[in-house]
Amino acid sequence: MIKVIGKRHLQVLFLFLTINITDSSRLCAQFVTPKFDDRILIDLQDNRTPGQTSFFLFMSNTNKYVDAGVPAALLVGGIIDHNEAMRQNSLYVASSTAVSYGLNYLIKHIVKRPRPFIQNINIVPVYRAGGTSFPSGHAASSIAMVTSLSIAYPKWYVIAPSFLWAGTISYSRMYLGEHYPSDVASGDLLGAGSAVSLMFLKK
Q1: Minimal CA–CA distance to 122: which of 60, 35, 53?
Q2: What is the pLDDT of residues 66-86, one digit of tens each?
Q3: CA distances from 164 to 2, 49, 59, 161 (A)
Q4: pLDDT tens across 134-165, in order?
Q5: Which of 2, 89, 129, 141 lies 20 to 30 A from 59 at CA?
Q6: What would the 3-class secondary structure string for 19-51 be?
Q7: pLDDT of 16-67, one tens digit each?
Q8: From CA 163, how far away is CA 143, in angstroms rounded?
């Protein structure tokens, strides 16, 4: 996977995580004047390759299927195995994702931040998504799903691949030119918050 992403993209991802998650005050400033956001997206688009673009487009498209598939698999497994805890945890994971979807929809319609390629003609997306930009729905739902799954099953072999997948989803939204880094960071926080707030549903 590192070979696919490339050293340049790993450096950008590290910069994104360092600045947009650990420095909330700067995150707010970026939302008002997204010059830093613009620089990140333009740098990413200038270093795209066909292989990387295909990979990140594929990963981005897995979001809705994994979001729905994981709680469905838990439910089916719980029914087959007569496992009440697994059935309850399927409700927890599904609810966390659903709440993140609902909150994301509400915030998008309140904030109405234009997509990056609408605000800056120098940003060229891989495809032109509709709707508004803040926060990232892909980031919010994927992080909500993996956070709730990791809380329900706190094992390294669940946590590590789950967050690797969700982190790739978040990164793909910037790489594809669909969301600003601040959109993605806010979506990640929204998703994690949705999962944590519903912990009472966990068995």
Answers
A1: 35
A2: 999 999 999 999 999 999 999
A3: 12, 21, 11, 5
A4: 999 999 999 999 999 999 999 999 999 999 99
A5: 89
A6: HHHHCHHHHHHHHHCCHHHHHHHHHHHHCCCHH
A7: 444 444 344 344 434 444 578 888 999 999 999 999 999 999 999 999 999 9
A8: 8
Residue tagged 């805890």 (tokens): 85
178: which DSSP letter?
Answer: S
pLDDT in tens, 164-188: 999 999 999 999 999 999 999 999 9
**What is the residue-wise DSSP string for 105-151?**
HHHHHHH-PPPHHHH-TT---SS---S--SS-HHHHHHHHHHHHHHH
Q: Token match 């598939």: residue?
A: 69
Euclidean distance between CA atoms 144 and 178, whole angstroms:
20
CATH number of 2-16+39-201: 1.20.144
Coil, helix or strand for 183? helix
Around Cβ 63, how many Cβ atoms within 10 Å? 20
Would you state the structure tokens that stand for residue 3, as one six-digit string? 């070979």
Asked whether 43 and 177 are in contact (CB, 8 A), the reply is: no
Distances 150 to 66, 99, 155 between C-alpha atoms, Å: 15, 17, 7
Instruction: List the chain domain ranges.
Output: 2-16+39-201
